[in-house]
Structures are given as C-alpha cells and as structure tokens.
Amino acid sequence: MSTRHRTGSEREQLELFRALPGDLAPRDAQDLMAYPFFSLAKSHRSTPIDFRSGDVAIRVEAVPEHGMATIWDADVLIWAASQIVEARDAGLRTSRLMAATPYEILNFTGRGTSLRDYQRLKAALDRLQSTTVATTIRQPPPNPLARVRPETGSPPEAGGRRMHRFSWINEWTERADSRGNPGGIELIVPDWFYRAVLDDALVLTIDRAYFDLTGGMERWLYRIVRKHGGHQRNGWRFDFRHLHLKSGSLSPFKRFAFELRDIIRRQPLPGYTLFVEVEISGRTLLAFEPAACGQPVDSVVLSGTGAIVPSGTRPSCYREPESGVSHGHKSGIRALNLESNQDSNLLVVGGGKTRSEPRPAGKGKRRDRDEGERSPLQAAASTRPFPTRSGGAS
C-alpha cells in the first residue's frame, strides 16, 4: 500500500500512502474537536482566531486570497484521520503523503461528485494549505520547573509552552496520466496532525450523520458534544459564554446565544439531546447527554495502540422532538463534572487570565427535591428548551 515517491524535498522522505477502499468509519482527532481551529461560516473570513485558556494558546491566520479554512473544509482532515487509523489497525504502513481520487474524498464526506463539487474540493484544499496555525497544544514547556513568573507571581504566557506552527496541508497536487487526464490528488498532512491521530492523542469515531449537518455552528457543536460527552452517561454542561469563546465565532454573544437556543429547539445533533439550564445567579448553561433511544457512544480509541476501531458507527439517534415545549423528563439540574471538566470550564477574564467557573455543589445552584416542590423557575430551567428569565445571559 506504500511506494517510494520522489518529486520534492519533503516527498523524498515520505512514502506514498494510497487511500484504502471501502466504507470506513469516520474518525476525528480530539484536539480539532475541542478547540477553535476553523471558521464556522461559509463566507470569506480573514480575521484571525486568537484563543487562550490556561496552558492552551491558539492563533489561526488566513490569507485574503483564499480566506480561512472552514469547518466544512475540515471534512478532508476527518477523511485523512479515518484512513490513517484504519490502515494502522490493519497492520499497514501509513504516511503523511496520501493519494486519493476526488471521488473517494467527496463520497466519504457525503458530498456530490459533480464538476462543481470537485472545484469546491480544490478550493477547500487551497484554504487548508494557506491557513496557518500556531498552538501550544502538546508542546512541552521550555523549563518544566518555571511555572510561575517571580516578578508577578502569575503563570508565564501560554503556560510557558512553545508555539508549534503549521498549515493543515503542507502541499497538494493534482495527478494526471500520460494523456493529461486527472488521475487523483496527492496531499501531505502536517506532522502535528499526523502525530495527534497516530501517536499522541485520542481519536473518536463520529456519527456519519455528522456530514449531513448543514450549519457551521451545528457541526462545531456536535464535535464539542461528542468530544466532551461521548462517553459521559450523565451528560455534560457548558457555560454559554465559554462556548462562545471556544467557538472562535465572530458573531456577537447575543447572536451566538440566539443561534444556540435555536439548535436546542431543533435538536439536530445525532445521538445527543440538548437542554438549557439556568443557575439561580442567572448564568445560562448548555447541558447535553446521550439520546434516550440508544446507549452512550463509548468507542474511545487510543492512538498508537493496537486497539481495534469499530468498522462502522451505530445508527443515528436523532429524533424530532414531539413538542416544542419540553424535552425529556428532568427532575433537576445535574451537577457539574468537577473532576473531568476542569479544562472545559475555564473562562478568559481580563488580561488574558483564566479562572475556573464551576462552583462547589450546593452553592449558587437550585437543587430540586421532587417534581411537586419545584418553583416555576426551576421547572422551566430543567425541562423547557427556552427557559424564560428576566435579565438572562442571552
């Protein structure tokens, strides 16, 4: 499946990996699911994404000619991750230099295969190549002992970690036969991404229905939910404002919150049910948990191990809600995941510093005793998709 390929300096050191045939299970890298790396809009974006939280710093920049890579463009990276993991688990040699036909990539990601779709794929590859990323994720600090600045008593910038810079695709070319007919596409994925998929991080199997999600915010939210709540049987919770920060969206917070509530009303995410919860302090939270029609998705696969990834995903659990008034039968607001959700509940405050948002149980939260004793406000917060509060966060 691998052959020596010599056409350039980097390619001389890489073996050509040809795409595997068949209907592979879609896999995604957790780093790409958890942080704002892509534009959520189909419109041209050149404004950088600048995200900081704890030791994590991310800056994404685009060139005006092509604009920033979008979350739809990231489907190419999902295809690449799926190919790499499938080959590894089959005992085949993998490589950052990958070859496929446009049809294979378009078909895998649920796109059409017309000439127009092919042109869009080429535009996506251009954006992936021209978008540059700098991040501290999975980068060691220069001095592990230098955790605090003596003069200020505060942590070093970005946790004192090095910034790793790369593009989503180092280069890509169109292959042609001796007659000049298109023969496929070759692309080189960056080492940072390749190692995340193969060696360092976790890879998650995602629902194939993800490719049917048409909205950028829906796609981003599914990846957040799948990453943080995929194997959490009791669900997960996020502050609305923290979600706004993690999205990298250019939309004002009020617009973002409106769109988030609309997604909660429509319930489009395959395999998960969404809720709005409101703390007594007025803080608005998004809660989500595996849909009741099936079991939680537990297929977390450690990269770099001999674990076998399931060959397919289970059927989507998405169902249109029976009523626009309520979802589920919740008796109260669930507790925060204090042990495993620390990183996800960090909010950036003034000066780029961070603080942990969750409060200890019993402080600043409503705790319902039974259905008959809840106040109207408590009932609304735990059962209605749009709890009505004066002075709410959105």
Protein topology:
Elements: E1 2-4, E2 15-18, E3 27-29, H1 30-34, E4 49-53, E5 56-61, H2 75-89, E6 97-100, H3 102-108, H4 115-130, E7 132-135, E8 164-167, E9 171-176, E10 182-188, H5 191-200, E11 202-205, H6 216-229, E12 236-239, H7 240-247, H8 253-266, E13 272-278, E14 284-290, E15 300-302, E16 346-348, E17 354-356, H9 376-383
Residue stretches low in confidence (pLDDT < 50, at least 5 long) are: 2-7, 152-158, 294-331, 337-394
Instruction: Count every beta strand, where a strand is a DSSP E run of 2 or more residues.
Output: 17
Radius of gyration of CA atoms, rounded to a whole number: 22 Å
The succession of helices and strands, N to C, reads EEEHEEHEHHEEEEHEHEHHEEEEEH
Q: How much helical structure, as a percent, in the residues?
A: 10-25%
Q: Major β-sheet, in short?
A: 5 strands, mixed
Number of separate domains: 2
Class by SSE composition: alpha+beta
Number of helices: 9
Commentary on this structure:
With 394 residues, this protein is an alpha+beta fold. It has two domains: 1-200, no CATH class; 211-394, no CATH class. Helices cover 25% and strands 20% of the residues. It is built from nine helices and 17 strands. A five-stranded mixed β-sheet has the order 1-2-6-10-9.
